[in-house]
Amino acid sequence: MKKVLLLMMLFIYSFGDMKFAEPLPSFENPRKWVIKLNSANIEDVNHMLSSINNVLKVYPTESIKIAVVTYAQGVRAVRNDYDPDTLTRIKSLMEYEVEFIVCRNTMETMGWKDPEFLKGVSFVQAGIAEVIERQADGWIGVTPY
């Protein structure tokens, strides 16, 4: 525990101007950020991915959880046939435990099946309901595009 606190304090001081609200983000009490992705526009998707990368640079390791809930047109962004460079960025973020969640209602409407999506995504029946429930559970909803 002391090592975690020491590393966290060192990390916080290295960002000088960044002031974290109390309680400080930690492994035991991480910040939780849910992002709604309902656009397949490549500029929107890549802006969102850049924003996630920027946030991951600010928070101490394992002191933030991020979930991207895709629904409507946003579901296209995690299909295997989306832009290869963008998919590489998404896979990289998944290695940092960023969750990408797909709306089954959208999939059913479009006639898409699980194997058409990136390995490692998770599925929920209703993307919007997932966002609502995460926010009810204390997740902060910010859509950075």
Overall pLDDT: 90
Cα separation of the termini: 37 Å
What is the CATH top level name? Alpha Beta
Uncertain segments are 4-15
Description:
This protein has 145 residues and is of the alpha/beta class. It has a single domain, classed as DsrEFH-like (Hypothetical Protein Ychn, Chain: A), CATH 3.40.1260. It is built from five helices and five strands, in the order αβαβαβαβαβ. The chain has helices at 2-14, 42-58, 84-95, 104-110, 127-136; strands at 31-37, 64-70, 99-103, 122-124, 140-141. It is globular, with a radius of gyration of 16 Å. The termini are far apart.
Keywords:
145 residues, alpha/beta, Hypothetical Protein Ychn, Chain: A, five-stranded parallel β-sheet, 5 strands
Question: Care to give the gist of this entry?
Answer:
The protein has five helices and five strands.
List the helices and strands and how they pair.
Elements: H1 2-14, E1 31-37, H2 42-58, E2 64-70, H3 84-95, E3 99-103, H4 104-110, E4 122-124, H5 127-136, E5 140-141
Parallel strand pairs: 1-2, 1-5, 2-3, 3-4
Helix pairs in contact: 2-3
